[in-house]
Amino acid sequence: MALAIEIRDLRFRYPGAAVDCLDIELLRVEAGARVFLYGPSGSGKSTLLSLIGGVIQVQQGTLNLLGKNIAHMRPTICDRLRADHIGFIFQQFNLIPYLSVMDNVLLPCRFSSRRQQRALAEGGTLPETARRLLSHLQLENTEHIPVTQLSVGQQQRVAAARALIGKPEIVIADEPTSALDTDRQSAFLDLLLQECAEANAALIFVSHNRQLATQFHYEIALPSINRAVPVGCVV
Amino acid sequence: MSHFFHMAFRSAWNRRLTLGLTLVAIALSVTMLLGVERLRYEAHRGFNLSISGTDLVVGARTSPVQLMLYAAFRIGEATSNISWKSFQDIAQNPLVAWAVPISLGDSHHGFPVMGTTPGYFKHFQYGASRRLSFVKGQPFQDVFDVVLGMEVASQLGYAVGDRIILNHGMGEAGLLAHDDKPFIISGILAPTGTPVDRTLHISLEGITAIHLNWVGGVPMHGFTIPGEHVRKFDLTPKDVTAALVGMKSRAAVFKVQRQINEYKAEPLLAVMPGVALEQLWQVVGVAEKTLLAVTSMVVFVGLSGLAAVLLASLNERRREMAILRAIGARRRDIFLLMVSESLLVTLGGITLGIIFLSVASLALTPWVQANYGITLQPALVSAAEFKLLVGVLVVGLLAGFLPGYRAYKMSLMDGLMSRI
User: Is the ipTM of this complex over 0.85?
Assistant: First the structure.
């Protein structure tokens, strides 16, 4: 099976820090897999996600993104890969406050022509594709509402639509449910899993709440694969 | 790229209050900068055009600039006069084509009264060899005829045939009136955009007539000469303030100038208007440069304010930057986002500044014209002003570099920053 992400002998140390933040021998995520990445705060989750996204540069080791090693790649190429192949959902405040729901959802298509083409390939115009995605996420008739007037749950679903538009191969969700109450957590998770399955995207779902892990293919505990001392990530 | 500017615009619109105030500050500073430049240009242009047809200006010995100012522009007052004999000698010089005497010192509601000969209307030229023309009436013929400049007539609402009283001395209030000898308006001149528009022209005989019974600047007590009797007196002037002289051939200017400057009977000064104006600009040049420097500083302060506002906004926009990075924005894009915002505000400031200036110059034209004799031409942007504006734009661009670089650095440091 093709690999979405493969990490081998990866080490990362923040400039000025005495010890490594990350030291991972092996981490693999297959294409289309649904992975629960467990990690308490300070265990290097954000650093790992920033590395996978190519936002910060790999110092040592191999990081294959869809078969391409992004270690030592030029930053602009990493930016392009991230725009083309990865959708991000954060804990909260995911949306650009001055853009409409529609503009927020379509933002990845502005930065990536590949995502734009894939969104268009689903049939119809970009707004139609976005509207379809929004309705799948139970956000009918919200496209013109200022995003600041949406509830937190609605905002997270708009963020999910944005992460999914143009069918990226990888979706990274960093504690997307921690700002939601328990009922809404599982509802959001159901919708997210369903849409990732439909887009055939690998989902890396990061959380410290292990109760959510049951619906995933497997769980990776970051502390168990990261051989570095946790203090290295506190900067 | 268009969506990028669209987003920069939306982002800026989201912070429209702070950015708007900054934009207005920049606009006002640009108005000042352009205003100073425009006034400078119009002053030069106006002065140079006002006396274009005259080869020499002759007066009592003083500084060339001062002579030019009072003789040609009615600014300041003459310290002494030249005798009628001297004037006649100059006029009879075989190299001189024409000489027109002028006699200043009286006024009417703040407008200067100038005594001269009918030759003034024939010989005086302004602008590109343009001569004076009448919109109504004709040159003065009688001793108590007066010819008005266009602005005097329109501002005071006078028409041909009206009777007016002249005052002794210059100024608005507290002047003694020549109320025993009213003048009748015989003609009104077409507008010229020069000091002529603000002048009342009477004959030299008229000047002599209204001062017949005056000694030492006041009327003799209990002694009046009614207007109808003045013609019994010899009204030939004893002296005049200055003379405008035209040559038969331009080549003779230097020779005649030297002859006048070496005139034995009394100390005279002949200046070429262009040379005297050049001296004037040299004197004024220091002030002009200082003004330009000060207004440039004001623009710089405005643009520093912009840089400060953008820097201050960075913290609240940290989240926005992180989101854009996660979606695929390059670090360069983050930098450009800040720079394009500063460019947007600077451009807006420049545009608004030009609008302010146009409105201000439209509103102030009559006032500037009345007080300084400078006509503001309605114009968009001249080449010199355009250069200044390009300078402003470049500095505005640079003002965006600092916050742009900070944002760039911050986005490196923050990574994906999922928890801000």
Answer: yes
